[in-house]
Specification:
By secondary structure, the chain is α/β, with parallel strands linked by helices. The chain folds into four domains: 263 residues, HUPs (Rossmann fold), CATH 3.40.50.620; 184 residues, Valyl/Leucyl/Isoleucyl-tRNA synthetase, editing domain (Isoleucyl-tRNA Synthetase, domain 2, Alpha-Beta Complex), CATH 3.90.740.10; 34 residues; 89 residues, Orthogonal Bundle (Isoleucyl-tRNA Synthetase, Domain 1). Helices cover 40% and strands 18% of the residues. The strands form nine sheets. It has a four-stranded antiparallel β-sheet. Strands 10-11-9-12 form a four-stranded mixed β-sheet, with helices on one face. A three-stranded antiparallel β-sheet has the order 8-7-13, covered by helices on one side. Helix 16 packs across helix 17. The mean pLDDT is 88. Bound molecules: zinc ion (2 copies). It catalyses: tRNA(Val) + L-valine + ATP = L-valyl-tRNA(Val) + AMP + diphosphate. This is Valine--tRNA ligase. Monomer. It is an enzyme of class 6 (ligase).
């Protein structure tokens, strides 16, 4: 007889060895040539430099449960893993390392800096994939992908060039979100609004000398004025006009006349535009076209000039009056307000709560900035993606996220995809130094397609990281090549992702799938909530309230971790875990694993090395208790399957727990002991053995 199992479950001795055996046996590998029906999940690729946190723990455990369940059902299950190069995030990390040597990326130069990033990625990258193995993730590691892999880069280029040829990728001079610290453009989604207690300053702009209009108030010196309100007074240095509504009687006589812009000695026009809400404030708004997207649009329509008064670092530049030059934007804000006050032109200051956009990577306040960038025209992509949801070709779990998706797609704006970074996919565009031609090509050109000249310069920018990850469901399968994986495993089946990247990633993948493959990339989208601490706070390094999944594994076992997150996870709802009392949080999961272990141990000792008896052979000898547990088993299996099909993983976990602990362990195992000892005769013993084996297998 085999060695009896130790009486206490020791996950440290069991889990890793078992995992290694599974991996070596190739149990996680999917076969594109298989006849079985495929079931496919692609992992949301973590940043290549990421370290495992509880969010990954939750998200990947859910994927693993679904994959293992389908694999057990006999499907050809593929869980494809990989990592994301994470342009801005990774570049920031390496820039900080370089800064420790007292250098900047500019000191190193582009090539050397990118070399440093690759070096860093090779040394530290992929740690997270090892960590996912440690918590039992049964991904097909032979198919591990990286967004900068050669074949994935080819997919990126194919998509850029194709969209350009269709006129859907274009270069535009526009207001974009700019991070003055990262020194790059950001998409609208990367500029995250944060509720901020700010102020609304009401400033008075006098009418220009010689302009008189009936009905306007006067300053003590007799000049007439208009009042405008702003949350960013420093931008007035770049004002080039004031706009009123065309139907606003109060200002009708002023349209086409001029104001004197304080502090600058400049005269600026009053223009009329429908954009202005006459009911709001004074009904007059300042126009700073170089520093505000709405003002920029008004300026396009009304012909008002554009004046950029800030450096890329968001300091005041030389276009502004002398005293303000070189000031940081917030310093300039105080200085401008003080000057208005001294001139008697500050009408009032109000407290004002509003959403201020912050860089999603470094939390710096984003500055709208006018610059030349590449954009994707999104409306034509959004339409089919909306339709796919309305037709039910793609479903969200929980359903309510469908509305969020719809709202975003209906109001979608063009996507700014160029980044002033060095780490990422370089934009496949070249400019001819001789004739000025723009060349957009799948292969690097050696000469100008128009004049034959060889003085070509590649666009210095790289693409938004999400411009590669939105292709992930098919770029990982080898597209644009027609591969066996592509034919077998696309479309994927289910996507499991945090709801925080619904726009960044999920919606865009649906658009890309429909555009380039004519099919949705996946049928079901399971959205997880966030993992928070027991006080409901986001887990973060700075708060020190995180839980390290690997510490949990060390102390309680990976199964305790997995059981805990799955049994506590409702789709789309946040999960609260107490980081101060890990025993309370993960103890029940460990106890459950231990109970399973003990039942298995008990069974092995009682079944011994006897060949397993099929249930059919003992059908006549089954006793009521055997039939009872078998019927409970088939009921539990039905219910668990049903829960999983409806993506109710917590119900499945609870049901499995109830069956095992409440019915099998507490009742059947106790009742059956005398029979297993042979007290009731051999037939009864064999019937009990067969039933027990079946029930434990099922559990
Ligand atoms: Zn930033
Ligand atoms: Zn040329």
């Amino acid at each position: 007889m085999a060695e009896p199992l130790p009486p206490q479950y020791n996950p440290q001795e069991t889990e890793d060895a078992l995992y290694r055996w599974w991996e070596e046996q190739g149990f996680f590998r999917a076969d594109a040539a298989s006849e079985r029906e495929p079931y496919v999940i692609v992992i949301p690729p973590p940043n290549v430099t990421a370290m495992l946190h509880m969010g990954h723990g939750l998200n990947n455990t859910i994927q693993d449960v679904l994959i293992r369940w389908r694999r057990m059902q006999g499907r050809e299950a593929l869980w494809l893993p990989g990592t994301d190069h994470a342009g801005i995030a990774t570049q920031n990390v390496v820039e900080r390392l370089v800064a420790k040597e007292g250098k900047t990326r500019y000191d190193l130069g582009r090539e050397a800096f990118v070399g440093r990033v690759w070096e860093f990625v090779r040394e530290t990258g992929g740690v997270i994939l090892q960590q996912l193995r440690a918590i039992g993730a049964s991904a097909d590691w032979t198919r591990t992908r990286f967004t900068l892999d050669e074949s994935l880069s080819r997919a990126v280029r194919e998509v850029f060039v194709t969209l350009y040829e269709k006129g859907r990728v274009y270069r535009g001079h526009r207001i974009i979100n700019w991070c003055p610290r990262c020194l790059t453009a950001l998409s609208d989604e990367e500029a995250e609004p944060a509720e901020t207690q700010g102020k609304l300053w009401h400033l008075r702009y006098p009418l220009a000398e010689g302009v008189e209009v009936a009905g306007l108030p006067r300053l003590p010196d007799g000049r007439q004025y208009m009042t405008i309100a702003t949350t960013r007074p420093e931008t007035m240095l770049g004002d080039t006009g004031v706009a009123v509504h065309p139907g606003d009687e109060r200002y009708a006589a002023l349209v086409g006349r001029e104001l004197e812009l304080p502090l600058t000695g400049r005269r600026i026009p009053v223009v009329a535009d429908e954009y202005v809400d006459p009911e709001f404030g004074s009904g007059a708004v300042k126009l700073t076209p170089a520093h505000d997207p709405n003002d920029f649009e008004v300026a396009q329509r009304t012909g008002v000039a554009t004046l950029n008064v800030m450096t890329p670092e968001a300091a005041i530049n030389d276009e502004a009056p002398e005293p303000f030059r070189g000031m940081d934007r917030f310093e300039a804000r105080r200085a401008v307000v003080t000057s208005f006050e001294e001139l008697g032109l500050l009408e009032k200051v109000e407290e004002h709560t509003h959403a201020v956009p912050h860089c999603y990577r470094c939390d710096t306040v984003v500055e709208p900035r006018l610059s030349e960038q590449w954009f994707v025209s999104m409306k034509p992509l959004a339409e089919p993606a909306l339709q796919a949801w309305r037709d039910g070709r793609v479903r969200f779990h929980p359903e309510r996220f469908g509305r969020t998706y719809e709202h975003w797609l209906e109001n979608i704006r063009d996507w700014c995809i160029s980044r002033q970074l060095w780490w990422g996919h370089r934009i496949p565009v070249w400019y001819c130094g001789d004739c000025g031609e723009t060349i957009v090509a799948r292969e690097d050109p050696t000469s100008c397609t128009k004049c034959g000249g060889a003085r070509l310069e590649q666009d210095p920018d790289v693409l938004d990281t999400w411009f590669s990850s939105w292709l992930w469901p098919f770029s990982t399968m080898g597209w644009p090549e027609d591969t066996a994986d592509m034919r077998k495993f696309y479309p994927n089946s289910t996507l499991v992702s945090g709801h925080d990247i619904l726009f960044f990633w999920i919606a865009r993948m649906i658009m890309a799938g429909l555009e380039f493959r004519g099919e949705v990339p996946f049928r079901d989208v399971y959205l997880t909530g966030m993992v928070r601490d027991h006080l409901g706070r986001k887990m973060s390094k700075s708060l020190g309230n995180g839980i390290d999944p690997l510490v949990v594994k060390e102390r309680f076992g990976a199964d305790a971790l997995r059981y805990t997150v799955v049994s506590g996870s409702g789709a789309g709802t946040d999960q609260l875990l107490n980081y101060e009392n890990l025993d309370e949080t993960f103890g029940p999961g460990r106890n459950f694993a231990n109970k399973l272990w003990n039942a298995g141990r008990f069974a092995l000792m009682n079944l011994g090395d006897d060949p397993r008896v099929p249930l059919d052979e003992v059908a006549a000898d089954l006793e009521p208790m055997d039939r009872w547990i078998l019927s409970r088993l088939s009921k539990a299996v039905r219910e668990v399957t049903d829960s999983l099909e409806r993506f109710r993983l917590q119900d499945a976990a609870t049901r499995g727990y109830e069956f095992f602990w409440g019915e099998l362990a507490d009742w059947y195992l106790e009742l059956v002991k005398p029979r297993l000892r042979g007290d009731m005769g051999d037939a009864s013993r064999r019937a009990a053995q067969a039933t027990l084996a079946q029930a434990l297998d099922g559990a």
